[in-house]
Design goal:
It is built from 20 helices and 32 strands. The chain is α/β, with parallel strands linked by helices and 737 residues long. It has 5 domains: 106 residues, GIY-YIG endonuclease; 64 residues; 182 residues, P-loop containing nucleotide triphosphate hydrolases (Rossmann fold, 3-Layer(aba) Sandwich); 179 residues, Rossmann fold (3-Layer(aba) Sandwich), CATH 3.40.50.300; 94 residues, Alpha-Beta Plaits. It binds adenosine-5'-diphosphate and zinc ion (ZN) (2 copies).
């Protein structure tokens, strides 16, 4: 039946993955009521076809006789529930992102295509009696099998393939071996109806937070759980989820990155014995779809996911937890530039469920929301299990008391700690050998020809690499401008520290953990396992080492160049410096072994650094907030950033000048009071051969800012000049670079 369409008949409003801020009208083939909101349709578009999502039924915006009918309804049941459809509508309007792009972000890759096969449910894996009894050393020669077996053993209930992939991307062949040896068996997944009772008593602070939040179950409640590293935040999450399980609710746990999932996953599995699904970028398309479907059916009781999982269908949603809520990875930096934490809050509000934001170093936004009464603060000030917090010391790294940038004091402490059989972390947030290659005779530095940046020396591979555009070339032997061979490597990165400390402490094993040393599949997991097991005693790494990994035997942490953030060009630099120091420091000392953190600084007298160490992160953040208030920066004002780039110098700048005039003279009325700053050249103007400029909009009223953005974005989309440049609009930008 192709129904008859009168002038007043409703049509389908469809979101399509095209960069235009509007919905598209299509005629239903048959009864419009068979096209629910959230269902996918295949539609003709120009000369091609697109998969779109039905967002609404409504009056046509165009002459109905010119509209085309949909080709096919792809889902009789909507893939996106109504609450997610409306969350996406809200988000695309708030972030001024074309609605179809927002929908495309939310759908698992498999569902972005019309033809896809529904993956068969996978088997799950469970340990056998033989697997339980096998001796510790039996698998020493097959380390992946050994770790996989340990994971399955620790998990109590059966684990999925997707979970195994988290432990090692090459999990499947070792798993076959374990199956063959009879140490593991395939089972279809079953879980007990009720979670087991808690085995461990919470301490007073944990108890207070847990009880208060449980008392708010059933309605919206915004909680900020500020607990120092090791204070037992995860334990609080577990008790909250246990309560949800008893009530039949689903819990969504949002994490900034997949690296953190394995640990959380095994703790949840063993404490709660329930169906947990994970959703993150490391999964392949069918694993993703499986997890998504299990969650949509309400079978998965806990969903652990990164950013885009905030759009997952959760029919029985009862609780949202955002761990490491301060982490900038929660904000998407391209395309649909949403902040997953902020959307999680909106989702919790709309669903009427509590949300818990957890961190050892909460963002200034969240602390500000506590000030405003929008979030309730719960604090965990003690390390759980009686462990003492590490002592923090500042070391002046100016002058001659350093070797390769490492202070004598740190070297001395390393000797002591290593002699005691304990581990050391040396943290330096810069990979490569040295950040600059300079000619001693003429002073020329090796610069990237595509960027306004020096190239980094990578000694292992004998290359110079640009960390901004990826350009790479052979390490030159002579200076490019005077041909002198007196080239010196200035400054230190992880490779240089690795080389120096390996020579200095030849009796110990050193492990370098950075993006270069872990680029091969499975390498990061292998490195982290070596670090945790004590196989390596000296760990040198970038911020990869700072995140949530648990190394109980590390009792000394040295932080190099901690204070680069004090003079960073971005307004968040100091906040991020404080967070990084506290996160790295959190790795030192656990349980019975107190830890020490040596923070090397060229500005040890800086008041903010002093305050961070003397009074802790809370006071430090309070001071930063006070400064932001006086200087009128976020979170006290709302911002949007328009970025633009072009291969020719000046074009991006001129374009933004045009946008500025338009914004100020056409779209702004005097009551709006939006400050338009710029255009300005980006702090690093040229990257990958393109010149970049930006225009900043600032306003103390969110509403007024959005009143300006609403007409501005479609106008920019339609303006002919916009097609000649690359531009983007970023609402609540995380950084201004
Ligand atoms: P966080 O998530 O805040 O870093 P964790 O939840 O990982 O802290 O707890 C740190 C350590 O303390 C873990 O080994 C955990 O098992 C232990 N722990 C947490 N709470 C308790 C408690 N109430 N009693 C005993 N040990 C605890
Ligand atoms: Zn020279
Ligand atoms: Zn470059």
């Amino acid at each position: 039946m192709s129904g008859e369409h009168t002038a007043t008949a409703l049509v389908l409003k469809v979101a399509l993955p095209v960069p235009l801020s509007r919905l598209f009208d299509y005629l239903p083939a048959g009864d419009i009521l068979t096209y629910p909101r959230g269902a996918r349709v295949l539609v003709p578009f120009g000369r091609s076809r697109h998969v779109g999502v039905v967002v609404d039924h409504g009056k046509p915006d165009f002459d109905v006789t010119k509209l085309k009918p949909v080709i096919e309804l792809l889902d009789p049941e909507p893939v996106l529930p109504v609450e997610v459809v409306s969350l996406l509508e809200w988000a695309s309007s708030y972030y001024r992102c074309p609605i179809g792009e927002a929908f495309a972000t939310a759908l698992p890759i498999a569902l972005r295509k019309a033809a896809h096969t529904e993956p068969k449910p996978q088997y799950n894996f469970r340990i056998t009696a033989a697997g339980n009894e096998v001796s510790e050393d039996a698998l020493n020669r097959a380390p992946v099998q050994k770790r996989l077996l340990q994971f399955i053993k620790d998990s109590d209930s059966a684990v999925t393939g997707g979970e195994c992939r988290l432990f090692d991307e090459r999990w499947s062949a070792p798993m076959k071996q374990l199956l063959k040896k009879g140490l593991v068996e395939e089972v279809s997944q079953t879980f007990p109806d009720k979670p087991p009772a808690a085995t461990r008593a919470l301490n007073a602070e944990q108890e207070k937070a847990t009880t208060a939040i449980i008392n708010k179950f059933g309605g919206y409640h915004g909680a900020l759980l500020h607990g120092i590293t090791g204070s037992g935040k995860t334990e609080v999450y577990i008790e909250l989820v246990r309560e949800q399980l008893l009530k039949g609710g689903q819990t969504f746990i949002l994490l900034p990155e997949i690296g953190l999932t394995p640990q959380l996953l095994s703790r949840f599995r063993s404490a709660l014995q329930c169906h947990v699904e994970v959703l993150h970028s490391g999964l392949n398309a069918s694993e993703r779809l499986l997890a998504w479907r299990a969650t949509a059916r309400g079978e998965a009781r806990v969903l652990i996911g990164t950013r885009s999982a905030v759009f997952a269908p959760l029919p029985k949603l009862g609780l949202i937890i955002v761990d490491e809520e301060h982490d900038s990875a929660l904000k998407q930096q391209d395309g649909f530039r949403y902040h997953a934490r902020d959307l999680a809050i909106i989702r919790a509000q709309r669903a009427g469920v509590p949300i818990v934001l957890g961190s050892a170093t909460p963002s200034l936004e969240s602390l500000h929301n506590v000030e405003k009464g929008l979030l309730t603060l719960y604090e965990l000030t003690q390390r759980a299990a009686g462990a003492v917090p590490p002592s923090l010391e500042l070391v002046d790294s100016r002058g001659s008391e350093t070797e390769n940038g490492i202070s004598k004091r740190l070297l001395k402490r390393m000797e002591d700690v290593l002699a005691r059989g304990e581990q050391v972390i040396v943290f330096i947030n810069r990979r490569g050998y040295s950040p600059v290659l300079m000619c001693e005779d003429c002073g020329t530095m090796a610069d990237c020809s595509n960027c306004d940046a020096h190239m980094t020396v990578h000694a292992r591979s004998s290359t110079l690499r640009c960390h901004h555009c990826g350009a790479e070339k052979q390490l030159p032997r002579v200076c490019a401008s005077c041909e002198s061979d007196a080239l010196i490597k200035v400054g230190a990165g992880t490779e240089r520290i690795d080389e120096f400390l390996s020579e200095k402490f030849p009796d110990y094993t050193l492990l370098r953990i950075d993006r270069d040393s872990t680029s091969r599949k499975g390498e990061l997991q292998r490195h982290l396992a070596m670090a945790a097991s004590g196989e390596a005693q000296i760990l040198v790494g970038t911020q990869m080492l700072a995140k949530g990994h648990d190394f109980p035997n590390v009792t000394l942490v040295g932080i190099m160049d901690a204070d680069r953030g004090l003079f960073g060009s971005d307004f968040r630099a100091t906040e991020q410096m404080g967070q990084l120091i506290m996160q790295v420091a959190g790795r030192a000392g656990r349980a019975d072994k107190p830890g020490t953190v040596l923070i090397q600084s060229r500005n040890p007298e800086h008041p903010l650094l002093q305050q961070l160490l003397a009074e802790g992160y809370g006071k430090f953040a309070g001071q930063l907030l006070a400064e932001r208030k006086i200087t009128e920066w976020p979170p006290y004002v709302h911002t949007a950033l328009i970025r633009c780039e072009h291969a020719q110098s000046g074009v991006a700048f001129d374009y933004l000048e045009h946008v500025r005039k338009m914004a100020c003279h056409e779209h702004m009325n005097p009551q709006m009071k939006v400050h338009v700053l710029g255009p300005a050249h980006a702090p690093m103007e040229r990257i990958a051969g393109r010149y970049r400029a930006q225009l900043l909009l600032l306003c103390d009223s969110r509403k007024a800012l959005h009143e300006l953005l609403r007409p501005l974005r479609p106008w920019m989309e339609e303006m002919p000049q916009s097609r000649k440049v690359r531009w983007s609009l970023d609402v609540d930008p995380h950084d201004m670079l």
